[in-house]
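INFO batch 0412 | record 1 of 1 | parsing
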Amino acid sequence: MIWIICMLTVVVLIAVSIKTYLNKAKSIARIALVLGCMFVATFIIYMPPFLTEYGVLPGLVGNLAHVLQVATVDAGVTEYFDAIISGMGNGPLTQCYILLIGIMHVTLPALSALTAVTVFFRCFSTMELFFANNRRRPLFVFSEANEKTLHLAKSLEHVNCDIVFANSTSDALNSEVKSQHGIVMKEEPISELGIKCKATKDIYFFCISEDEDVSLSNTLQLIKQYAAEEETKQEHIHIYQFSKHNDFSTYIDSADKGEIDVHCVNEYETLIYNLLDRYPLMQYGESGIHVLLHGLSPVNVVALRAIAWCGQVSGFSLRISVVGVDIAKEIDDIKLKVPGLFTDRYDIRFYDCKSEKEIVDTISRECPDANYVIVSAESDNLTMEQGILLRRLFYKLDREFAACPPIFCNVREPAKFELLAQLTTAEANPKRKMNYDLIPFGSLEEVYTYQRLVDSPLEKLAKNVHLAYEEIFSDGPINVKEALKRYNIFEVNKRSNRANALHIRYKLNMLGLDYTEDPNVQPVCLEDSYTEEALDSMSYSEHSRWMAFLETEGWIPAEREEVLAYKDSGISKGRHNCPILKMHPYICEYEKLKDLSLELENKDTTVYDKELIIRIPDILGDKWKVSGTKFNIIKKR
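INFO prediction complete | emitting tokens
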């Protein structure tokens, strides 16, 4: 009977081992579990013959020694066959028993060797991480190996740094990334790597996961872990948390970040900001901007909100038309989240169509004068199809081809992006202007690269905008280090500063100017253009932009009585605005702002807009030596 029990137990252990090996990630702990199961199985399969021949205690000791010999390929296979046949007879069960012994003699040594190799490489990986952590050059740590992190890692090939992939195995890397130096693969989650921060070394953590909840959890754990370090060390910790939902930033803002530099990166927002900066709205209309959004995908929802504030330029009218099939639900969602856009201040029109033919008819009837078109569908193929359809449509609407709008297509797949990009080059179309063609945007390179994230020109300008405001509100010279600490407190303030930085190009356009990073240009003195009329016009635009930005963030105007009520209640901590309720009294016409601010704060806040305009040369010229990049103001090309 004991022979049958032992054989069945071994079969169960083998089944458990196979399931564990196939269904779980092959970490060292699970490989060790499989090895343990097979070791026990080998011990059990040999237990009856050893007990029969030697008795209980000697048999157990002898069996253990024999199993160790099996694991090291130092034991014979046939020496106990006679004892097995004697105990079980020469039937089918005996043959199965002997087969199991053969399996153990093959599997146990193989698993022992695999475990030894795994332990060796784990120790080697630990030493690699130790050296990477202790070298002086920057360390870049990724939460896992996926398409986005691999693309970001590839962009570091010219940066002298070390790279660590958490929650990954060596087979997760492609050959391009493997060719880089200093790459360490670790199976532990990013928050469990135990990386030590130092006062002389910058460490960049990138929490990029397909599951955004995991990214948020990793970010919060890293913040908690490093917020306990000394301030001089915290300043060298940079954490990038990636989410397509700005609401996630509320959790980051509530955490005690200390001096840790935390960035909440919204992929869609980054794409649209890059698009509006590279292809400014007013470039395609002399006095009026009519933007057509084909569909209400998440990218186009972000575009709608950004264009609403980015297009606030004096002397330019702004209209946004949104056309799509069955977009009623998306429209209701926008109304709920950003009710401020559905007022008379904005000319935003939605056309909910039932078919593609109805879309064509609607555009032909309602939007023939559109001069800026963005197409973003569920897939790259559908986006390209819709883009081509719109290009043909606008050719038909304007037979002279004199006012065909640029059509920007959100294409993510690199191969298709390159295909569309070729259509915009002079070499591919020497006889056609670029703005007749499809212009792709949305590739990984527009977000997931070192140049776009760590070395972002927009982020540099945003910090300088913040420092300009700090100087405006200060009675004397500012402490730049302390001012930058305040920049990192609330993510909504960062987004506001980024929006302000992006809009600088739009304000300069009102004076026929632009800016460039190229040092080999003839710079223009902006102060020469600062007439009283120009300052008033630019200040008006800045207030309109700021007001529109708040409304795209979900803020609504607050009446005087409401301001007094929430100030008295303490919910706003005595402030004239209430972040919890997203209510602000200065969301009002520019003409009313002066009297209202004098009443509520006993000061004229309109001067702040003018002061900011006056400091544009300081912002672009990196007055505070923070960004390391100086932009020159030039005449518009």
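INFO post-check: The CA atoms of residues 280 and 322 lie 19 Å apart.
INFO record closed
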